[in-house]
Protein 1
Amino acid sequence: MTDCIFCKIAAGEIPSEFVYEDDQVVGFRDLNPQAPTHVLLIPRRHIATLNELRPEDEALVGHLYTAAAEVARREGLAEAGYRTVINCNADGGQTVFHLHLHLLGGRRMSWPPG
Ligand code: DGP
């Protein structure tokens, strides 16, 4: 999508350092980190929200989580733990409408979330 900031990041049109990259998914650090490690994993293909997922996207979403676990290992978070979050629409706190998985770690998370 031409006016989507995350599409532009995935396409390399906005220079960004990828902490993870493959043919389906890229990962980069959040502009406004909420934890010592805060990485966003996104599909290269534009999907606006979780609501737009189709059955044929199931492997892609599974792959997003596999990529998150790989980044968590690389960042040294796996043993201590970390949190993954996908926000959906206004009540979920979504502000960028290109599906993204937050990987947060490096501090103890609280529950319930705010
Ligand atoms: P959400 O609220 O779940 O839609 O999360 C969007 C996140 O994206 C938010 O934590 C800030 C981050 N973000 C927004 N614009 C940019 C950007 O241009 N670059 C990077 N690296 N992160 C961004």
Protein 2
Amino acid sequence: MNQIKHVAIIMDGNGRWGIKQGKTRNFGHEKGIKTVEMIIKETIKKKIKFLTLFAFSTENWKRPQGERNFLFKLLEFYIKDKLDSLNKEKIKIKIIGQKIFTNKLNSLLNYAEYKTRKNKKLQINIALNYGSKNELLHAFNKLKNKKKKITIRDIKKNLFTKNTPDPELLIRTGNTKRLSNFLLWQIAYSEIFFEKKLWPDFTAHDYNKILSKFRKTKRNFGNI
Ligand code: FPP
């Protein structure tokens, strides 16, 4: 049976879900938070130590300002509302991506990271203004003046995910088969599960089915 230390998720389909309900895309994002809460609960239950959630990509800046602002407000409300309980649950919050939001949101994110820094039960990496190509560029620029040859270890140590093992599995909901510039280095050997359901419809049962399937998957890592 394969062990799971780290699950990464592309939470796709909120917008379509909102429209399907005859409401707005933002209504879908709001509902998406409920699925986030369920996933956190299930991940703790399964004693998985790392969870990375793709909340806002470097490409998502192209969305209308109204939707962007709504997403940032949602995140702000979520953190303000849940930080104490996340901390009590011994959850560590880490933001991956560059924090270039309003001073208010940047400070709140820094505070959430600081307050939960010693927690060890589950680390949640929230990918915000995150893009894999940006992350790699950032790492290469940090290493460019190194005298010796750059090693794999050097690159790993300079990614936003340093100190996080690579995800054994990546889940993408929303019936789309692409990686959208997410953790391209880290998922070199991850098992990828594309799920048809839209994120707000994704249930604990669906999640657990994927985890069980992953546990039974034969992983070769280039061997036979
Ligand atoms: C993708 O659906 C979803 C997002 C870009 C945002 C995800 C954000 C949340 C679920 C809320 C905040 C997260 C945390 C961690 C508290 P989409 O809008 O691309 O959907 P579509 O493919 O139907 O357009």
